[in-house]
Amino acid sequence: MQVESKIIQGLMRLRDVSVDELCDLIQFDLENGITYFDISDIYLDGEAEKKLGAVLKAHPELREKMFIQTKCGIVNDRAKDISYYDLSYEHIIESVNKSLERLGLDYVDSLLLHRPDIFIDAHEVARAFATLSQEGKVKHFGVSNFPHEIMKYLYDHTNIPMEVNQLQLGIGHLSLVNEVFNVNMNNSEGIERAGELFFFIKRHGIVLQCWSPYQVGFFGGNVFKDPNYKEVNEYMEELGKKYNVSKCAIATAFLLKLGDFIQVITGSTDKEHVKQTVDGTKINLTKAEWYTIFRKTGNLLP
User: Helix, strand, or coil here: 225?
Assistant: First the structure.
C-alpha cells in the first residue's frame, strides 16, 4: 500500500468532541496534509464512527479527500461485563456492515483486525477478506497489535494481502526496537518480546503505524511531562532549537527516521498538537541524533 500521508489522525478520543468540532478538525487535518483517518468499531462503543458518519453526511464532499480506516475484533458486552476478541468469519462480516452503517458509507478504504484472537483461523479470515473485497466494502486489509508468528501463520496458509500492522511505538515505548540492539544480552532489554516483528514488517513491505507515540508504556502518561524522561526531553528541546520545531515534532521525526514504511498516529484533537506532529515530517534527524535520543530514553545501547 502506497503511503501518502505520513501522519494519521486517530479518532479514538472523541467523547467530548462535537460533530461540528470534528468537522473543523478534519478540515484542519486536510489543510495540513493529513488525509489518513483511523477509527474503530470499539471506540466509544460505536459512537465515534457515528460522529464521523454525521460529519460525512453533512459534508459529503470530504469523503473523496479522506482515506478512512476502521478496525474490528474487540467485543465489549458491558451489560454482562464481558470482553473478548472475535475474528471469526461471521464477526468480521457483521462488524464491517455495522461500521459502514454507522459511517453512512458504502466502503472503507482499509480494515484492520484490531487484536489477535487465540482462535483465529487463517482460512476464515481469508474468506471474510475475500467476501468484503468482492462486495467492494473494503479496499485494503491489515492487522493491529499482531505478533510476528500470527502474521507469518496468515501469510503461510493463505494469500491474505496484509498491508498494515498498527503497533505501539514511541519515545516512551521502544520495546519493538529495543530487543534488536540487545540480542544475546543477559539483561531485561534482551528478552525477546516482539519476536523479529520489526524486521518481518520491514522485509515484507508492510506499513508500520505507530499508535500512542507520545505515551509512556500502555497509557502511562505524557512522555513530555514524565520526570523519568527528563534527560531525553532536555535533548529534544536542544534539537528543537536547532530545527526550530517542538519536542513533539522531534519525537515524530525520531519515528519517521526508521523508514518510509512508518506512519505516526496522532490521537490528539488539539490543532496545535496536530500541527506539531506534522512539523516532524519536515525534519530529517541525523543517525547520531537518532541514537542519542534512543540512549537518553534510558534504553541500553550495548
Answer: coil
- Is the separation of the CB atoms in 167 and 209 below 8 Å? yes
- Residue 137, Cβ neighbours under 10 Å: how many? 18
| Beta carbons of 150 and 119 less than 8 angstroms apart | no
State phi, psi for 42 to the nearest 5 degrees: -85, -15
The pLDDT tens digits of the residues spanning 212-259 come to 999 998 888 999 999 999 999 999 999 999 999 999 999 999 999 999
When comparing pLDDT for 159 and 117, which is higher?
117
- pLDDT for position 123: 95
Residue 85 phi, psi dihedral angles, 5° rounding: -110, 140
Amino acid in the structure at residue 276: Q
Beta strands in 64-155 (DSSP E): 67-72, 74-77, 82-85, 108-113, 138-144
Q: What pLDDT, on the 0 to 100 scale, is given for residue 115?
A: 96
Which residues, in sequence order, are CB contacts of 109 under 8 Å at separation 6+? 67, 68, 69, 138, 139, 140
Does the predicted TM-score (pTM) go above 0.90? yes
For 274, the grid coordinates are 496536530
Residue 109 burial (CB count, 10 A): 16
